[in-house]
Amino acid sequence: MELSESVQRGLQTLADPTIFDLKTFTVFIEVAFRSLLSAHSDHSILDQPELKLIEQVCLKQCHVAVTSCILEGVKLNADKSTVSSCLEDNRFESERVEVFYSLFQKHKGDLETLLSSIGSGPPHVNDVSWRLEYRIKNGHVHKVNEPSYLISLNVENGDMGRSLEDVQFNCTMEQLQDLMGKMKDAAKSLEKATQF
């Protein structure tokens, strides 16, 4: 598993027995898993009596690190050897690796379900319709004499059971030309990305 330097530093702090003895480490890991699975943040690491003696900044850094590691492991469907080698690379003793991995196995199914419920991408456009409007006067009876375009994008959100909706916006000729230029650039970038 590839983890950022800040995540690795947080894991190394968590592995330090002078900061987290085995009891506080176990409590910390249990709370980290519960915080990922809970819809409410009633499982705060800062509220645990066993963790009161540890500096709050340290707790927060370690919490971010361990939850990042957990989610990365679930995302990659990591097995025991992958998780163990990652934790051992970050100075975890074998006893701590066992505590972590047993909780990882216990909650892995629930975390997979949670991750799969998160959308994988933005909605995509199925259809576009537009209408040209010509404004002669504004609400203050001043002459405007400018064209305006009402654009309606019919989008499909595949993550939410194929729901369809319309996204509507109004733009001037310059804004429409700018939008078209950006869309062409994006299409070219996607074409280049798919060629590799």
Automatic annotation (TrEMBL):
One of its GO terms (biological process) is sodium ion transport. Residues 124-194 form the COMM domain. CDD domains: Commd3 (cd04751). Pfam families: COMM_domain (PF07258), COMM_HN (PF21672). InterPro entries: COMM, COMMD3. Belongs to the COMM domain-containing protein 3 family. This is COMM domain-containing protein 3. It comes from Osmerus mordax.
